[in-house]
Design a protein that fits this description.
The structure holds two protein chains of two kinds.
Chain A: E1 9-12, E2 18-23, E3 35-39, E4 46-49, E5 63-68, E6 71-76, E7 85-93, E8 98-101, E9 105-109
Parallel strand pairs in A: 1-9
Antiparallel strand pairs in A: 2-6, 3-4, 3-7, 5-6, 7-8, 7-9
Chain B: E1 3-7, E2 10-12, E3 18-25, E4 33-39, E5 45-51, E6 60-62, E7 70-75, E8 80-85, E9 94-101, E10 106-109, E11 113-117
Parallel strand pairs in B: 2-11
Antiparallel strand pairs in B: 1-3, 3-8, 4-5, 4-9, 5-6, 7-8, 9-10, 9-11
Classes of the chains: A mainly beta, B mainly beta.
């Protein structure tokens, strides 16, 4: 059972928007920076968002992140077929003294 | 260009041992914390552990699921990261990734190496 809870799946038509929630607690999300990772089928994870809402170079601005209290959210606008992947939130957990990942959300483009 | 290349995966029997390696290039390896993350078949990402830099006495942290069985080490002269896995269990079967940690985010990942624990 993951420390961070995400919906198992979300879906939308091409061009539409999806949001993925990540719910944690005061020992992780509320007091630490959140990152988001994209795992395309058969590939290594890729950093999408760091420090709650920053994008590494090369990541399009269709991807955005936000945080409020013990929850974080990843948004994807202008959905493309190439966005079909699993998405994970992640952050440090001060109580566990370790990094924790969310349970993962599969994005399907209808 | 930053590159991380893992090796050493394979088939091992329950109770056995295996040592994974990760060779880094394209950045000053000794300046960064390095981590191992795994993904079991059909499952999500799981952090395994990390090793800090020389200035932090190469301190290590581990997930509860592997503490006491796995050991992370590094050789900065060889730009290499290691994961010694002992007392392996079937539930340790996974693709193991090495990742560069940059202020609590993993900004570069290797391609992964598959470890299968089975009799």
């Amino acid at each position: 059972q993951s420390v961070l809870t995400q919906p198992p799946s979300v879906s939308a038509a091409p061009g539409q928007k999806v949001t993925i929630s990540c719910t944690g607690s005061s020992s992780n999300i509320e007091n630490n920076y959140v990152s988001w990772y994209q795992v395309l089928p058969g590939t290594a994870p890729k950093l999408l968002i760091y420090d709650n809402n920053n994008r590494p170079s090369g990541i399009p601005d269709r991807f955005s992140g936000s945080k409020s209290g013990t929850s974080a959210t990843l948004g994807i606008t202008g959905l493309q077929t190439g966005d079909e992947a699993d998405y994970y939130c992640g952050t440090w957990d001060s109580s566990l003294s370790g990094y924790v990942f969310g349970s993962g959300t599969r994005v399907t483009v209808l | 260009e930053v590159q991380l290349v893992e090796s050493g995966g394979g088939l091992v029997q329950p109770g056995g041992s295996l040592r994974l390696s990760c060779v880094a290039s394209g950045f000053t390896f000794s300046d960064y914390f390095m981590d191992w993350v795994r993904q079991a078949p059909g499952k999500g990402l799981e952090w395994v552990g990390r090793i800090k830099i020389r200035g932090d006495s190469y301190t290590t942290d581990y997930a509860a699921s592997v503490k006491g069985r796995f050991t992370i080490s590094r050789d900065d002269s060889k730009n290499s990261l290691y994961l010694q896995m002992n007392s392996l269990r079937t539930e340790d079967t996974a693709v193991y990734y090495c990742a560069r940690e940059n202020w609590y985010r993993f900004d570069y990942w290797g391609q992964g190496t598959l470890v299968t624990v089975s009799s």
